[in-house]
Amino acid sequence: MILDRVKPLDAILAAAQKKSLHRSLGALQLMLFGIGCIIGTGIFVLTSAGAQKAGPGLMLAFVIAGAVCIVAALCYAEIASMIPVAGSAYTYSYATMGELLAWTVGWALILEYAIAASAVSVGWSGYFSGTILNEFLGIALPQWLAAGPLALGGEPGGFINLPAFVIALLVTWLLMIGTSESAKVNAILVAIKVAALTVFIGLTLTSAYFDPDKFNPFLPAGIFGGFGTGVGAVGAAATIFFAYVGFDAVSTAAEETKNPQRNVPIGLVGSLVFCTVFYILVAAGAIGTIGGQPIMGPGGIPFPAGSEELARQCALPAYSDALVCSNEALAHVLRQIGFSGIGNMLGIAAFLALPSVILVLLFAQTRIFFVMSRDGLLPEGLSKVHPRWKTMS
Length: 393
What we know:
15 helices; mainly alpha
């Protein structure tokens, strides 16, 4: 391997033309891919942590985090338009920085998508085992089938996390039989998530509990919150940035996109703008109904989110129903304003739609494998194209 060798753009495009994936995706499908990956557990669980750092300024925090992501997305869109092949940052690095850095970036992306997909699969498994099987069906999955050998938090391990393994396997099978089919399933799952959040926004913003006075003060900890405190709108933006993770996966689909110069930028920026607007409306609905002021510590600085000090305050009757004390913020808000049944259904909708995150993450990871194999940096067998499904075989 010539470590500093840069692969010219003409060579990249020629290699893609010789062995390429079928172009079947349009702008809407790419946008739904981005939405499917971005809207995951982040918005459902991080709202309370963000409110503890910024209060009603959580809305501004979503704007800050979204703006940062959009700047990065514009960079991805520009390069993807010039190099409309799979591979994302790996391919861009190969064309500009050389083979060694490209190989490093490629493996970093593979690990990122693999670990993220595994984490989401395990999260889905926990909900499936605890809520669907245990509470609804009365079935207790044996520990050796409910957890991997290396359980976290001091919990006893098992042999295999079977639900997580099965959902990852099903998503992999779906990706194998066709990109267009995967996009259709993703569109259905995205529709479930968007519908659930739309119901939440509609119920909260039109609720009799909604009170504009609950947004005052809007920035109780300020914009920056003081040096090193990690609070304020900027500190909250750093926390809820996780709710935007995955938008870059859209760029890995450039080689399977019709008219990528037009559609990839629309997919990247469109999904981010859509999710940012939804996140702001969700935050407005949650805070406007039950309030979202942080619990203040010494010196007028909010207690750190997730800290023992905050947990002790949340155990007090005065704060037990506060938004910042909830582990399932959106469902908690609906229960507080008299929609307990819909709140429970919101959690189920999130559970049903969570596989869309796994789907997009595994889609992106396999495309990195494909391009690195095509470039000779991984075994050639990883870049075989199935003669019938036109996907990686």
